[in-house]
Structures are given as C-alpha cells and as structure tokens.
# Entry
Amino acid sequence: MPITGQGVVSRVAGEPALLEEIIIDDPGPGEVLVRIQASGVCHTDLHYKLGKISDQFPYLLGHEGAGVVEAVGPGVESLAEGDYVVLAWRAPCGRCRFCALGQPNLCSASLNAEPRMRTARDNITLSPAIGIGTFCDRTVVSAVQAVKVPETCPPEQACLLGCGVTTGIGAALYTAGVRRGSTVAVYGCGGIGCSVIMGAKIAHASRIIGVDIQPNKLQWAKEFGATDVVDATQGDPVQAIKELTGGNGVDYSFEAVGTPQTLLQALWSRDLAGTCTLIGVPDPTMVVDLPMLQFFGLGGSLRVSWYGDCLPSRDFPMLAGWYSQGQLDLDRVVTRTIGIGETEEAFEAMERGETLRSVIKL
# Structure
C-alpha cells in the first residue's frame, strides 16, 4: 500500500528545490523500501537542479544515502527488514558485456528500481537523482543498490560512502593505482579532492600536493594528509609542483575541478610516463586544446574515473570498516549537519566553497 512522505523536489531548472509531500509505492520485484537516516549534499545534485545533466524534471534530489530497509519486494533474499545499508548509484547487473568480462565496475546496464515516487499535489512521477533519490524520508531502490555496512559507521558518515568519498578514494586506489612511495598532485581540494588525498595517504604515497585557489580548501588538504599545498592564485601551479619534486613532476595527478585549464595543468604536472586522472565533471560546452606533440613526448596516460572504479558490494563495507578502525576520517568530511528543509542553503554554501559536505540528518 502506498505511503506518504517528504522529499526535496526540483521542478524547474535553476529554481529552488522545495520540500514537498510525496507518495511512495510499495517496492516491486527485486526492490526494497529504505528509510533514509542521512544524506550527503553532493555537487552532482546541484547539477541536476540546474538542468546540467538532463531535463527529466521533476527530480527527487539526492544520491548519497544511508538508512534502514523497511520492506522488501518479491524475490529479494539478500536483504531483510532492519538491515542497515548505504545506497549505491551503480549496481552491476551481472549480465552485460563488462560484467561478463569480470569488470562489473564498468557495468553498462546498472540496476535501478522502477520509478516509485510521485508528487502528492499533482501525481507526477519523480525522476530520482542517479536512480536513487535520497533527499527524502523514504525511497525505493533496486535491492542490489542497497549495500549492508557495519553499524559502527553512523549514518551521517556512512552516507558519504555512497558517492563522494568512495569516488575520490577509488580514483587513487583503483583508477590510478597509486603506488607506495610515489608522488601525487590533486587539483581541487573540495570533497572529492580531499578524498583522493585520503586515498593517496592510504596507498602510502611519499608526497601528496594539494592545489587550490581557496585558503580554506588548502587547509582541508593539509588536515586530510597533504604533505604540501600550492595556492594557484600565487603563480603557476605546474612550476610549483616541479619545484617540489626536484624538477620532475609527480607520478600521479588528479583533476577534481572539471575545467580545461585545471586538466591541462594536471597533465603538465606529471613526470615522464606519469598518470593523470580526470574526476571533475566538465560542462557539456567545454573543450580542451591539446598540444599533441607535448602530450606524446611526456608519455604516460590520461584516465577518466567513474565512481572511482569502485565495486560498492566490496568497497562500502571495507571503507566503513576503515572508518571504524580510525583509518578513514569521515567525521572531518561532515562540515555541517542540516535538516531536510535546508537544502537550498546547503547548495549556496557549496557554491561559495564553504563546505566539504553538508549532511541532511533525518
């Protein structure tokens, strides 16, 4: 039987997303109903609100969520009522060409629930952000999207594993494969960039250089493990990184901003045969003018990291365990705890660069 709840709905691109009454249908076959306990406010949600991802309005925003399973649909055996879970926006299907090759992190047919949430006032079916929708008290997802994690990781911290933290750490550990004793530069020291720094620290990189234009973000970089920071407003960051690495450049560079300028800076910050990883999501209009001979002469590789090449069923429990063991500083990532009606203020603080993550606590 359908139930009534609350959710933050974006109806028109660029206009405020407002708290509305929503109707949630029962979970269908292979689906579960999850009561959301906490949700991170990610930059991708802002992109949805601004209409920069698609135009399938109205959206139920939010995709970093942790909570408790309240009901399971027909055929679900992997989860039960009361299970504590983190939601994943990529859930490998097990059948596509990538899953068949043993690369489920690249699944091309990720599983999602059927749209089960509607607006109460005009009965319009909502598009859940990245197939989840977590700015709400309850949501319906595919059972494969709900990953059980240890309860020793509280919801406010656990929800961050659903996207930002896992993306950054995975970019370091999986996409780039940072080696012990190597050198790293991270362009953009917000939520994703600081998670890359944590990943590089876990990988035992010998030197981790954070690059940004805002003093508070450079301070965050230091707190999460950067050995050096570069203020890009004070000169050429590429030259500064070269000076910090004996004139060579770094083994691994990461771009967590999503602009042509920072991508080129990250590319030219590498040592010979170094690896550059693009994580920041570019605007659809952006293009890069790349000097091909310079790129060829430096060698190495340019990688793109989707979701940190993570496998949620493996990585969410592992990262929650690392938090419980004191190896992962998720507490510091939570800049503010807010109510579900304060998401617009959270977006504004994000745009001003004041927060790593605002977390909605329900």
In short: The longest helix spans residues 164-176. The radius of gyration is 20 Å. The mean pLDDT is 97.
